[in-house]
Amino acid sequence: MLALIMQILDVTILNVALATLGREFQVDPAALQWVLTGYMISLAVFIPSSGWIADRFGSKRTFQAAVIIFTFASVLCGVSTEMWMLVAARVLQGVGGGMLVPVGQAMLFRAFPPDERAKAGAVLSIPITVAPMLGPVLGGVLVEYASWRWIFFINVPVGALALLFTVLYLREEERTGPGRFDLPGFLLAGIGLATLLYGLEQGAQLGWGTVQVWVSLLVAGLLITGLIWRELTVREPMLDLRLLTDRMFGTGNLLLLLQTGSMFGILFLLPLYLQNLRGVSPMHAGLVLMPQAVVMLATTQVVSRIYGRVGPKRLILAGFAVQLAICAGLQLQGLTTPLGFLAGLLAVQGVAMGLLMTPVQTATFAGISGRAMGQASSLFNVSRQVATALGTAVVATVLVVLTEHGQSTMDPATPLAEVQLGAYHGAFLVSAVFAALGILLALRVRDADAAASLDRPSGSARPGDREAAGTVR
Q1: pTM of the model
Q2: I need a surface site. Which of 160, 299, 419, 442 has the fewest CB within 10 A?
């Protein structure tokens, strides 16, 4: 939890300080973007290989090394005096961050039997929810009242505490013998994923018709195609793509894609809407978003207790249905709509997040053995990273396209803010599409496929699931 808070908080807190960093180092936005891009690329390289590294050197040692690297790199970020120093330190941060989450998640799920993982997932959801909400508020306070350097230094006490706990309480797990290092798989996965994320990010910023974006996506497509062929034919793959043939694990990764795409799209849009259209400060925007985190935490605790009796299918369907309703409610947002109405909508979205996060994660790993947990966690976090980039890229593109179209066709008497508001409404509909697709995919979920994580034995599955029970691996 501490490591995850540190990693997620670092990303969300930095967004608030980008303008300050640009003035501090006297660089243009293109150069400043590498503070984010360098970290993202480094993450993309090390997430796929984290499972093999943990199996080879031990989960505890790998996790400790990741905490040390991330914390040390945070210090280097805070003392940077040149832009190149800051970018290099961010790349080093990505090395630690790329191993923190997958290895930590695998350790957590190995520590609990399948029928208790819903409760473990509820604990894991705390930093995933709280950190993005605290980031803008804390970042605004530190930048305004202290110094931009403290957005990095704040990681040091959290990292030190996490490292202390690992030394005192974590036991090294039995290693599973990962086999030989798959160098071609490592290169194809790392470079391919990094190029894909870079292409998605640049497409949202520069436009999808630019040569730079098309070349990035074409190269990414070729590399990922080569990765799939390599990992399905080699005896000891870096990423065991065969795990996706497990019905629940494969479906769970697609559900994660749609869930993350819908929710992160909204989380990307709302701070822009609040600050650019409503004139709200970053700190105030964070406070408007805060009810979502509070309600989500409460909902998650309830869901973790009823998951074993209700099963994942109905919870996931309910979560996507509530999320679709929230997207519809966002269409009612205007330039003068009380912010309390938005805070109320977001509180309801907290219910949707609570209904989705724990069931999707718990059901996805229900049929995964402890031996394969490291590989499965790597794949799951690759999906999460791609989903975040994809959701953000799509809504950002729709926002830009609709804004430009509205400006070119607007009546001179129409306020520009009205045109921009219409563009935000269109972008919110993209999140609605993700949620609608999530409902359709959730209909394919069978509780019997996640029988190991339920309170009832697989033999007592409901009638509609009984035929599928024999397919569970």
Answers
A1: 0.81
A2: 160
